């Protein structure tokens, strides 16, 4: 086949590894801007999660990285080389599709070997490599099986083996965990992270589930309506969100108006004012005109007594969540917060006191 | 979509669209233009002609009557077989679709042998009741609708059966739980939900009956319908009038299509369920016996035409005159078919023309279906329309369009002389079967996960490798089924052939008609049996091919 030598030539032979960088990527469909000036980099061995709700442009971004879409503006580079217009068949990337896209008419082995077939590898060599790849995902001996006979988790691993066997320059995964049941999901996360670290190429994966992103990713890029809201480590996004939107998407918690006093911020609910120790986003100004604090459930405490300087409120929902109880408490001024507690003594409709712990609390501009 | 893909879309779409514009749109446009060649003259001629007015009216009457006759047989049969268990059910189910396996002209001949004035059933009744004359004449509207009902009820039966199979049994149970009687359930739940299937099959019957040629041609007597009128005008050299008649026939078909679309416009729901209904076993002994007797009669009625053709194929030509059954039997008819080159010729003609047309269909329709299902480009809607259009145009109209267009070499107007050559018939078959093959391949491809193509490309596969290893295997069931249907239709094709054939490329159907005219019933029947045999052979070949690959 004609493309096989080209595939090798442009993709290299897996030896040199470079940074996958998207810069200034914009993609419009008619009047709709699916991706709006998005830039980020993924280094070798690094896992970046593209996180966002549906319609946020994360899948379009992934398809641009893979070469299935050409951006209207911006460039995609790998190891400094512009590959924006290189078609997917000549990029040498490994991609795992959301529903795995396994070829239903080929047995497992042939699926895994297909990328080698496209590269003109002879039949014996590609079988040997395919079997090795299957073994590396824990599916030794499954080569003859029909795709239809595999479970969801097995299909996911075949898809991964198929992407890995071509010694890809980068790995792209579209919602790799979304089709797995919750119990399998947990263990697959760990396996997947270990596997991706071992391969040592830039890995980009798309997910709508922040827990998946937290569990696997080194860094997270959060997208909303085509725009990149923030990128950073999971801790950065959780503890130092740059905006209300990020704070609302990442983690649980209530976003409450506050008065920014520089080192601290004051929150007044029902006439009770509390000064909170705050962190601000990296590089943000020292004082916001309109400020909000993010109150995570684990940064508040609840008690049944009246409490000194506590916010008073009514429990409207009580939920047991493993080791802790999560209360939703309606405070004054239309503020509702969630509070985690080890004690389960409060019940629905009880009047309780809520006070902030030491913090620091993330502060975001409004 | 990358610019390389966009270029490829046009590289693939342009020849296909150009070919279809040239062979489908252009001839029909030529017919319409031809009808106005002397202003409104030909149209005035048409309107003034009592024969043409009668033909239009009769065509529509026959089509509507065929629809209702098919419903009357198809719907109860589908309910009986779909909802009840009784002795003989499997046999009845097995033969229920048999009429569809008869090539159009063969079905007509079988009816002639059975129910014609000198037919077996007619004579038997005449003899046993000592009548001086035949109890009926197989002629006119009644005869045509009778044959149509026999061959076309299969559409209704298949559509309604499929609808019943997908019918959610819990809906029925819910209705009876709410206190609805059997009749109320049928009227308010079952039938409304089956309406889309019923409407779809009604449209199919209507279009088929409107374009039907063989039954009116053989049983019409003095009766005129549009399709036969077109051929008559063409034979008389009144091409202008033939163009008007063709335009009117095509417009009637399009009007019928639009009417059904409009009637079916409110459909917002789809039947989607696991079905899983169990058939009710008929409890009452008496009703069970009655049902089985009924089933036996239906089975005989359905199989009789096939048996009759086989029987007559062994009758010595010219020996069957006034007897109930042919008196002398011989293998001579078959021996002559295989040994006399003039008689063998139509068989090789039909087979080779059908294979050529089918090969063309497979290539063109595969590309078209691939583009329609997987690619987004400006001409996609046009392409979709072009591959579906021949379905809405009666075969006689298609044939006349070809006759009007490809009758001389004139490169400036894109005309090539094909009329009178071998190639005109394969072209006509190709056009007639394009919608069939396209929709079969499309439905196969629609079942394929679109990301498979992306996955193959991502793994480094060239477009050709992706086609060969991913797209083609996904399209294969549709290609095999569509190709088989196309080949089967083409090998027995009659309606377009009768307009366009020449002596040297005459297909089997034309030879059957010629033998019938010469009163060589045995030879005509032997050809018919051979045709059925060819259809069977193709079906088996397609099935074994599919099994070997799957």
Draw up the topology in text.
The complex is a heterodimer of chains A (366) and B (550).
Chain A: H1 3-11, E1 20-29, E2 32-42, E3 47-51, H2 58-66, E4 73-78, E5 81-82, E6 94-96, H3 108-118, H4 123-136, H5 152-164, E7 171-174, H6 182-199, E8 203-207, H7 210-216, E9 219-224, E10 227-232, H8 234-239, H9 244-249, E11 254-260, E12 264-269, E13 272-279, E14 291-295, E15 300-303, E16 311-321, E17 324-330, E18 336-341, E19 351-356, E20 361-365
Helix pairs in contact in A: 3-4, 3-5, 4-5
Chain B: H1 3-35, H2 41-48, H3 50-83, E1 84-85, H4 89-95, H5 104-115, H6 120-128, H7 140-166, H8 169-177, H9 182-211, H10 214-219, H11 226-235, H12 239-263, E2 280-281, H13 285-313, H14 332-339, H15 341-374, H16 380-392, H17 395-405, H18 424-446, H19 451-458, H20 463-491, H21 495-500, H22 508-517, H23 521-549
Parallel strand pairs in B: 1-2
Question: What structural class should be given to the helix and strand makeup of chain B?
Answer: mainly alpha
Number of domains of chain A: 2
**Helix count of chain A, per DSSP?**
9
Pattern of helices and strands of chain B: HHHEHHHHHHHHHEHHHHHHHHHHH
Give the CATH H-level superfamily of the domain at 1-27 and 332-550 in chain B.
Answer: MetI-like
> Would you identify the CATH H-level superfamily of the largest domain in chain A?
P-loop containing nucleotide triphosphate hydrolases
Number of helices of chain B: 23
In the CATH hierarchy, the third-tier topology of the domain at 1-27 and 332-550 in chain B is known as: MetI-like fold
Which structural class fits the helix and strand makeup of chain A? Answer: alpha+beta
Termini separation of chain A: 57 Å
* Spans of at least 5 consecutive residues with low confidence of chain B: none
**Radius of gyration of chain B using CA atoms only:** 25 Å
Describe the strand arrangement of the main beta sheet of chain A, using strand numbers: 6-7-8-3-9-10
Major sheet characteristics of chain B: 2 strands, parallel
> Shape of chain B from CA axes?
globular
């Amino acid at each position: 086949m004609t493309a096989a030598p080209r595939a090798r030539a442009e993709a290299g032979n897996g030896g040199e590894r470079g940074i996958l960088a998207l810069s200034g990527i914009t993609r419009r469909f008619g009047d709709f801007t699916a991706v709006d000036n998005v830039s980020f980099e993924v280094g070798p061995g690094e896992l970046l999660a593209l996180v966002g709700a549906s319609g946020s442009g994360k899948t379009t971004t992934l398809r641009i990285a893979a070469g299935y879409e050409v951006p209207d503006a911006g460039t995609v580079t790998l190891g400094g080389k512009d590959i924006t217009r290189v078609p997917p068949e000549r990029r040498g990337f490994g991609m795992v599709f959301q529903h795995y896209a396994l070829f239903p008419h080929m047995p497992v082995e042939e699926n895994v070997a297909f990328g080698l077939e496209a590269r003109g590898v002879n039949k014996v060599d590609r079988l040997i490599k395919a079997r090795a790849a299957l073994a590396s995902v824990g599916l030794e001996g499954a080569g003859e099986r029909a795709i239809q006979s595999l479970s969801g988790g097995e299909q996911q691993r075949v898809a991964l083996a198929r992407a890995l066997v071509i010694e890809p320059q980068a790995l792209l995964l579209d919602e790799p965990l979304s089709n797995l049941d919750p119990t399998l999901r947990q263990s697959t996360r760990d396996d997947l992270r270990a596997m991706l670290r071992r391969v040592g190429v830039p890995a980009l994966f798309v997910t709508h589930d922040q827990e998946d992103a937290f569990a696997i990713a080194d860094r997270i890029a959060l997208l909303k309506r085509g725009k990149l809201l923030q990128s950073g480590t999971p801790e950065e996004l959780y503890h130092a969100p740059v905006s209300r939107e990020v704070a609302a998407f990442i983690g649980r918690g209530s976003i409450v108006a506050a008065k920014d006093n520089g080192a601290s911020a004051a929150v007044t609910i029902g006439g009770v004012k509390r000064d909170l120790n705050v962190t601000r986003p990296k590089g943000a100004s020292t004082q916001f005109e309109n400020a909000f604090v993010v109150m995570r459930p684990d940064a508040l405490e609840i008690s049944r007594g009246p409490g000194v300087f506590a916010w008073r409120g009514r429990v409207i929902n009580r939920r047991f969540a493993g080791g802790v109880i999560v209360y939703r408490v309606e405070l004054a001024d239309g503020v509702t917060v969630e509070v985690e507690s080890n004690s389960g003594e409060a019940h629905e409709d009880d009047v309780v006191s809520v006070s902030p712990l030491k913090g620091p609390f993330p502060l975001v501009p409004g | 979509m990358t610019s390389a893909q966009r270029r490829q879309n046009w590289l693939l779409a342009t020849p296909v669209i150009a070919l279809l514009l040239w062979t489908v749109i252009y001839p029909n446009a030529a017919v319409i233009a031809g009808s106005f060649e002397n202003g409104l003259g030909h149209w005035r001629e048409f309107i003034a002609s009592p024969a043409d007015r009668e033909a239009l009216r009769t065509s529509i009457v026959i089509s509507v009557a065929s629809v209702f006759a098919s419903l009357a047989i198809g719907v109860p049969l589908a309910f009986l077989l779909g909802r009840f268990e009784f002795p003989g059910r499997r046999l009845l189910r097995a033969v229920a679709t048999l009429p569809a396996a008869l090539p159009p002209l063969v079905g007509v001949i079988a009816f002639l042998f059975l129910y014609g004035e000198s037919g077996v059933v007619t004579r038997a009744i005449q003899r046993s009741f000592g009548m001086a004359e035949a109890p009926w004449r197989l002629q006119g509207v009644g005869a045509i609708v009778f044959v149509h009902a026999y061959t076309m009820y299969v559409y209704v039966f298949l559509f309604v059966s499929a609808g019943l199979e997908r019918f959610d049994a819990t809906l029925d149970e819910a209705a009876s739980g709410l206190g609805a009687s059997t009749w109320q359930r049928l009227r308010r739940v079952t039938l409304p939900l089956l309406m889309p299937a019923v409407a779809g099959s009604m449209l199919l019957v209507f279009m088929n009956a409107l374009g039907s040629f063989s039954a009116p041609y053989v049983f019409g007597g003095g009766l005129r319908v549009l399709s036969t009128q077109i051929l008559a005008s063409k034979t008389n050299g009144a091409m202008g009038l033939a163009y008007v008649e063709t335009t009117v026939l095509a417009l009637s078909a399009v009007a019928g299509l639009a009417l059904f679309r409009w009637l079916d416009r409110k459909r917002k729901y789809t039947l989607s369920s696991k079905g899983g209904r169990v058939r009710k076993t008929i409890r009452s002994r008496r009703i069970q016996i009655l049902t089985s007797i009924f089933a036996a009669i239906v089975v005989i009625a359905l199989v009789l035409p096939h048996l009759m053709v086989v029987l007559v194929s062994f009758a010595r030509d010219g020996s069957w005159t006034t007897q109930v059954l042919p008196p002398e039997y011989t293998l001579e008819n078959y021996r002559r078919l295989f040994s006399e080159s003039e008689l063998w010729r139509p068989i090789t003609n039909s087979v080779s023309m059908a294979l050529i047309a089918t090969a063309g269909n497979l290539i063109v329709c595969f590309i078209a279906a691939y583009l329609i299902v997987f690619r987004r480009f400006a001409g996609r809607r046009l392409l979709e329309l072009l591959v579906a259009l021949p379905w809405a145009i009666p075969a006689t109209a298609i044939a006349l369009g070809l006759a009007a267009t490809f009758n001389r070499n004139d490169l400036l107007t894109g005309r090539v002389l094909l009329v009178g050559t071998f190639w005109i018939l394969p072209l006509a078959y190709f056009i007639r079967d394009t919608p069939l093959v396209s929709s079969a391949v499309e439905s196969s491809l629609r079942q394929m996960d679109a990301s498979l193509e992306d996955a193959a490309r991502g793994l480094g596969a060239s477009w050709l490798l992706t086609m060969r290893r991913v797209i083609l295997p996904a399209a294969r069931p549709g290609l095999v089924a569509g190709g088989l249907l196309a080949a089967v239709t083409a090998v027995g094709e009659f309606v377009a052939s009768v307009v366009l054939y020449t002596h040297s490329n005459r297909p089997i159907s034309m030879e059957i008609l010629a033998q019938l005219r010469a009163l060589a019933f045995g030879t005509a029947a032997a050809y018919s049996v051979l045709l059925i045999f060819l259809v069977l052979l193709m079906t088996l070949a397609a099935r074994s091919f599919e099994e070997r690959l799957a």
